[in-house]
Request: fold
Amino acid sequence: MKLALQLGYWGAGPIDDAPSLIAAAEESGFDAVFTAESWGSDAYTPLAWWGASTSRIRLGTAVAQLSARPPTSLAMHALTLDHLSGGRHIIGLGVSGPQVVEGWYGQPFGKPLARTREYVQIVRDVLARADRVRSAGPHYPLPYPADAPGATGLGKSLKPITHPLRADIPIWLGAEGPKNVAQTAEIADGWLAIFYSLSLADQYESWLAEGFARPGARRTRDDFEVAATVQVVITDDVAAAVDAYRPATALYVGGMGAKEKNFHAELYRRMGYGGVVDEIGRLFLAGRKEEALAAVPDEMVRETMIVGTADEVREQIKQWESAGVSMLMVTTRDAATIRELATLV
Reply:
């Protein structure tokens, strides 16, 4: 089991003491540190800024949103950071959701699986630098079609001026549904599981197996990373820890997505919380957030947590490892917890 620090995206301002958290993670033997983006801070700038003070730990995005930048731009970010870090970058990508893609980026959300496949292929083509980069589209045509609206017809196929340090920078994908997870196993080097639950471990493995069985699959289960974001709390007061994370569960289930399409809510339905999910969503949409929090049962919060005494946490980590998780991406904001957690793995 590897450990990583998941810093996520910023709230109203930068993450407090991020440099000291990253330093503690590197000193404690953590494998990687990750940043994210939603519709505020971006993923790459903090990773580069804070990563400049590191020397060993890998630097990843979890996730950079596809709609935030064209695939060639993402590849430019990635090859640049990989050079600056001496080959320590992990590209973590995700499609986000329709509210963000269409409301913030002003792009269509449709065909997320096809868009992801095409996007990843273009990124790989840029990093390979074997030829000028071309794509037939339809989502990211390169060059831009001469007969498309607004086109000049002067577009030219190019390959990067800068030679990438690594042609095979690992690409991990954020995925929640069965089709998305299967495609991730087929085309990527790792899976970023935002809400991993032991109760769904067998389902996850079947989805992954479907992808690995496809012709041309990039990897096998033996050399594929499963990185699960998890709240790890070492404490004697489990109830208080659960209460502290209840708002996050309620937000993602009830407030992070449209009523008609919320991938997080769908995942919790697969865990068996369909009725609860509906109630939380109803209360959120009605603006009754306190009632929505109260509607989240303890066991629902604990589905995606590792919490308890040091011995209990150590045992739970073993369970996650046995279930197929190869990396725990912990969200703690406490350097002491980072150091103690490193002693339990």
Summary: The chain has a mean pLDDT of 95. The longest strand covers residues 225-234. DSSP finds 14 helices and ten strands in the chain.
